[in-house]
Each structure stands twice: as C-alpha cells, then as structure tokens.
Amino acid sequence: MFDENKILCASSAYEKKYYLNKEFEKLPESIKDELKIMCVLFTEDVGGVLTLEYEEDGSLYFHTEADEGDLLYDEIGSELKMKQMQSEKRELLEALELYYKVFVLGENIEE
User: Fold this and answer.
1) Quick check: pTM over 0.70?
2) Distance between CA 105 and CA 90 in Å, rounded?
3) Which pLDDT belongs to residue 95?
4) pLDDT exceeds 80 at position 5
5) Is residue 72 over pLDDT 90?
6) DSSP string, the chain
7) From residue 67, how far is each of 12, 32, 48, 49, 80 by CA, in Å?
8) Structural contact between residues 60 and 54, judged by C-beta atoms closer than 8 angstroms
9) What tens digit of pLDDT does each residue of 58-68 get?
C-alpha cells in the first residue's frame, strides 16, 4: 500500500499556517471549515504542530510535535486537548474515517 500515513490536514503555531491536503478538497466546505477551526485553535492553545493523519487501515489519529527548544509548548496540555477534541468531535472524526475508507481505500461498507 503506502509507507507513510496520509495527512488530512495540519496546523503550525510556528508558521501560523493551516494546510489541507489537496486530495481532500472535495470535502464539504462546512467540514473543511470545522477542521481548520479545530486545528488552528489547538495550535494556538498549546503550541507546536498538529497533524491529522490516516493510518493504512483508514483510522484517523492526531499527531502533535514541537521544536526541541520550544519552552512554551504544553505537552501535557496537548494530550488533554487531543482527548477533548476526540470526544467533542467524535461524530466528525468517525465520518472522516468512513469517507476515507469508502472513497480512498475503496472499501465496501455495509451497515
């Protein structure tokens, strides 16, 4: 399949930038806006860089990191914030996983 995880989106407190992978441009505008707000607020709150990435099986996970010398990065706060976002945005994140499994991986999902 592929060696690396596929990035959905990312936000950087250092560059003050947000990135949405062009492969996901067809997502509804409301979903793209919600992702942008969620990611930018995260990096503004705890610092560092946040990426939302798909694993090979279509699971979506949060990855955060900070520059080595960044004394303002809140590592504990980032873990708590990720858990909070995963809880509050559970439906959105599950829908994004389903979207990826159906439209990118080509899985046949029957419920």
Assistant:
1) yes
2) 21
3) 96
4) yes
5) no
6) --SSPEEEEEEETTTTEEEE-GGGTTS-HHHHHHHHHHHHHHHHHH-SEEEEEE-TTS-EEEEEE--TT-TT--HHHHHHHHHHHHHHTHHHHHHHHHHIIIIIS------
7) 11, 27, 7, 9, 19
8) yes
9) 999 999 999 99
